[in-house]
Amino acid sequence: MLADTNILAQSPLFEGVPPGALEIAREAFQTLSYAAGKKVFEAGDPGEALYIVQSGRIKIYRTNLDGKEKVLAYLNPGDLFGEMSLVEEIPRSATALALEDTVLLALYRQEYYGLTRRYPEVAHNLARILARRLREMNLEVEVLSFEEARGRVAYALLKLYRHRYGEQSPQGWRVPATHQELALMAGTSRETVTRVLHALRDEAILRLLPGTVEILDTAALEEVLYGLR
């Protein structure tokens, strides 16, 4: 099965490529299917490919020596991950898990080199993606090191919002995440997340639905992140 060009068109990897390039690029990808609960790769595995989510959902996480899980990202169709493996042959730094039945588009290193020889824009786009990831990592280290729980929870929600995880609603943006999932992203307890979410709800910044947080005021949530309210 060939890659879906509509999904490739959503990816920042192919931003600005010439017309017709996606039809050629789709032949460079392999389509892989993963059942819910199946790992795509684990931390420490050799890195061989970049992946784009065609359908389903992926969780990216790390586990520390005590067995505690830290969620780095939840990914939707159109999102990509594993891009570092295309520029440096190093082991995977995190684990990728299919949260539901998922189809991925895999771009292996050799095929990537072939694409970049034909379309240099792809290499430039990958460099921009890596630079953005680095900025996000630096901000995350700062937030998780110095911010209190309120700022950490705000950061986790804004990160999901900026990655368009969820869906638009008439009132704002709905993020399909449980309190426990947000706790794993924010590096705090579920009870603390619940307390913070209830406070933000009372301030009319959020609305709480079963298994979902609806962001009503992103500007106010930004202020919470930076300690302005």
TrEMBL record:
SUPFAM superfamilies xref list: cAMP-binding domain-like, Winged helix' DNA-binding domain
Segments forming domain HTH crp-type: 147-219
Entry-linked PANTHER family: CRP FAMILY TRANSCRIPTIONAL REGULATORY PROTEIN, HTH-TYPE TRANSCRIPTIONAL REGULATOR ARCR
Name of this protein: Transcriptional regulator, Crp/Fnr family
PROSITE patterns in UniProt: CNMP_BINDING_2, CNMP_BINDING_3, HTH_CRP_2
Any one GO CC term of the record: cytosol
CDD domains, per database record: CAP_ED (cd00038)
Keywords associated with the record: DNA-binding, Transcription, Transcription regulation
Domain Cyclic nucleotide-binding span(s) in chain numbering: 13-133
Keyword Translocase: no
MF (Gene Ontology): DNA binding; DNA-binding transcription factor activity
Superkingdom, taxonomy of origin: Bacteria
One Pfam family recorded for the sequence: cNMP_binding
Coiled coil: none
Keyword DNA-binding part of the UniProt annotation: yes
InterPro entries the record matches: cNMP-bd_CS, cNMP-bd_dom, cNMP-bd_dom_sf, Env_Response_Regulators, HTH_CRP, RmlC-like_jellyroll, WH-like_DNA-bd_sf, WH_DNA-bd_sf
